[in-house]
Amino acid sequence: MRQDRPAHPSHRLFIAGLGVGQICSWGSLYYSFPLIAEAMRTDLNWSKPDLYGAATVGLLASGLAVYPLGSAIDRGRGRAIMACASVMAGMLLMAWSQVESIAVFYVLLAGIGILQAAVLTEAAFAVVARRFGAADARSGIVTLSLWAGFAGTVFIPVIQTLLDYFGWRDTLLVLGAINIVFCGGLYAVVIDPAADAPKRVDELGPRPLAGVQAVAWALGSPVFWALAIALTAYWAIFSGFIFHAYPLLIEAGFESWTVAFALAIIGPAQVVGRLAIWAFAPSVQVRVIGSLVVLAFPLVFLALMVTPPVFAVVGLIIAIYGGANGIMTIVRGLAVPEMLTNDAYGAINGALAIPTIAAKAAAPFGAALLWARSGSYGSVLSALFGVSLLLVAAFWIGARLAARRDDPNNCRVRAPDGH
User: Fold this and answer.
1) What is the CA radius of gyration of the chain?
2) How many CB atoms lie within 10 A of CB 284?
């Protein structure tokens, strides 16, 4: 497996700039919601299902946008997309700070969801794949994921501080300014389409897949569908848990600051997990890494169901979850080039993300409904455990199919690039 590290100074600046931008984008546009939603619920007397229904609408809107945005990044429009989307996201956060109507709130969250598809992981990984070429993007994707792992660590305590001292409306104004000035500026400076790796052109062989053609080929691959099921289950777990971890631990009897710092463990744990892959498994195939790490998720949710609410124990469980989640970010970023094809990274990854984002959108609202009907988060943890078992089964099937396809003694139809 090739592992060309982007050692050139311009490459390091590119990844560092994208990484800092991802910390701010994830922290302000995603990790902020549960904390702000709880403050809004207290202030406006809106119900938990109403609030999390808006998050669902936003994430569904993100799912509709991810494929066309990925295709546009494949065509070299990453700078315009990520920089402009950050500015627009900042403006919508500022508009959110003035909201009084639930209908307006839903409209604003839908807009923010579309912009999340333009600035979060799928877009950033597509920009990296275009800069280095999909076949050589492993090092850049892993490094970028290390940066992004600090988003929760940095922003959850910051947002909690802002909420405690200034309230949720002024907190949103600060987050909006960060998106407009900081994220928009960084993406505009470090993303340079002129520095992207040239597209592969082989006049003696097949041309690389692109756009709809690439997606059509992927839809005919059993590996694609196994990955789609696995990653859909993963995103349902991630979204359902991360959006409800704060109120879940509050319900267990912890103080808000204790919960904020417990959840801040997720960020460093993600980084530790990614560093472990970087240091100890730099050339291990992603299907092997993924097959092992998915086992952590059912174990984590089972432990949360049976463990008493002791901070040290819960902190350890959350750390394990964070480490597994950090490694899964790498698995998600490398699954397409290493298990499917090097062609049309943005388009195929975007198509793969459509069902996953639908699950990510539905999970917070579904968890809120389970909580409302049962009166506790026990039923939510049981549901997360069940979905995590589906994740394990589907990824193992996909890994097995990819291994059989790559076996030189097994004749199968391959993508034009040999993958």
Assistant:
1) 21
2) 12
What's the gap between Cα 212 and its chain centre?
24
Residue segments in the chain with a per-residue pLDDT below the cut of 70: 1-10, 134-136, 198-212, 214, 218, 278, 280-282, 308-309, 340-346, 406-419
**Fold exhibited by the domain 9-194+211-406:** Growth Hormone; Chain: A; (1.20.1250)
pLDDT computed for residue 173 by the predictor: 97
> Which residues 6+ apart lie within 8 Å of 74 measured at CB?
126, 130, 210, 211, 344, 345, 346, 347
- Burial annotation 98-114 (CB, 10 A radius, 16+ → b, else e): ebeeeeebbebbbbbbb
Q: How does DSSP classify residue 208?
A: P
Buried b (16+ CB within 10 A) or exposed e, 373-384: eeeebeebbebb
**For residues 151 and 22, is the Cβ–Cβ distance under 8 A?**
yes
* 323 three-state secondary structure: helix
Sequence-distant (6+) residues with CB within 8 A of 126 are 70, 73, 74, 78, 345, 346, 349, 350
User: Could you tell me if 383 and 177 are in contact, meaning their C-beta atoms sit under 8 angstroms apart?
Assistant: no
Give CA–CA dist 238/197, Å, rounded.
33
**Measured between alpha carbons, how far is 59 from 61 in angstroms, rounded to an integer?**
5
- Taking the C-alpha atoms of residue 22 and residue 416, their distance in angstroms, rounded to an integer, is 33
Which residue carries 């333009």 as its tokens?
118
Give dist(CA 138, CA 143) in Å, integer: 9
CB 150 within 8 A of CB 271: yes
Q: Is the Cβ–Cβ distance between 151 and 183 less than 8 Å?
A: no
Answer for the pair 321, 296: CB distance below 8 angstroms, yes or no: yes
Q: Where are the alpha helices (DSSP H) in 307-344?
A: 311-335
